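can u do me a favor
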């Protein structure tokens, strides 16, 4: 199972920049998208279906905002839309796909706190709710893969300027502590498991400063995590910074059957 997670910062914008042509190169079996900023009827799904993908969409109630989708060549046995937390579901942040009895994939778009104190407070609420959701889910679906834009750089190695950003949302001590807690609860960061000491590997670059991507002054805030019982099945994990349809780039993990 080859999995990609990708915040496209608007799926229609990404398509206009060659996203479908990239999919034609067969980069993965399952493509998990965050921040679709669209509803399914806004997108020509026929071109995705022609490549062998079934598409599952969970859009925000607010048009042009947030939302997640999964395009998959492996047919799920069950799809669940939302996490049953009202605000999270209003913002279209979580979609779950079960693949038989063996594995469950949760694609999530974590909130950003960059717009102010109110959203930062909600981000902390969402993080606690989401960890509780995963804890409960594991009672019946013990093998999980959690893809998404987590909007948190976990360690200093995951951000180009840790000292300058120590008071910036996405690298705050409380957010990093949540990542510690999340991983301590039996989850594995696939990229760091495969590449424990690989520095300067980022998945997002600020659009406020046009030169930072060329200079690789980025953050690693996108993750494919998995429960420890899948760790031995993880065969590869990497980042594709050369793919440029968004201010993020795709990340990749491969899990053997």
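np, heres the sequence
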């Amino acid at each position: 199972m080859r999995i990609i997670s990708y915040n496209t910062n608007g799926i229609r914008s990404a398509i206009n920049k060659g996203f479908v042509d990239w999919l034609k190169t067969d980069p993965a079996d399952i493509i998990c998208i965050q921040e679709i900023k669209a509803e399914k009827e806004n997108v020509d799904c026929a071109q995705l279906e022609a490549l062998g993908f079934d598409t599952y969409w969970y859009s925000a109630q607010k048009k042009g905002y947030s939302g997640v989708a999964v395009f998959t060549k492996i047919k799920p046995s069950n799809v669940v839309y939302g996490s049953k937390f009202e605000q999270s579901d209003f913002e279209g942040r979580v979609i779950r796909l079960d693949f038989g009895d063996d594995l469950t994939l949760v694609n999530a778009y974590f909130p950003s706190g960059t717009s102010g104190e109110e959203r930062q407070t909600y981000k902390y609420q969402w993080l606690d709710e989401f960890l509780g959701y995963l804890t409960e889910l594991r009672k019946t679906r013990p093998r999980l893969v959690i893809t998404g834009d987590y909007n948190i750089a976990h360690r200093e190695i995951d951000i180009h300027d840790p000292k300058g950003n120590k008071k910036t949302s996405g690298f705050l001590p409380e957010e990093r502590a949540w990542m510690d807690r999340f991983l301590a609860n039996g989850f594995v960061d696939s990229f760091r498991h495969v590449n424990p000491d690989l520095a300067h590997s980022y998945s997002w670059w600020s659009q406020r400063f046009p030169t930072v991507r060329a200079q690789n002054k980025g953050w690693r805030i996108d993750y494919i995590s998995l429960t420890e019982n899948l760790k031995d099945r993880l065969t590869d994990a990497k980042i594709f910074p050369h793919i440029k349809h968004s201010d993020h780039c795709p990340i990749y993990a491969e899990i053997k059957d």
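Helices lie at 11-16, 19-23, 46-49, 86-90, 117-137, 173-184, 190-194. hope that helps!!
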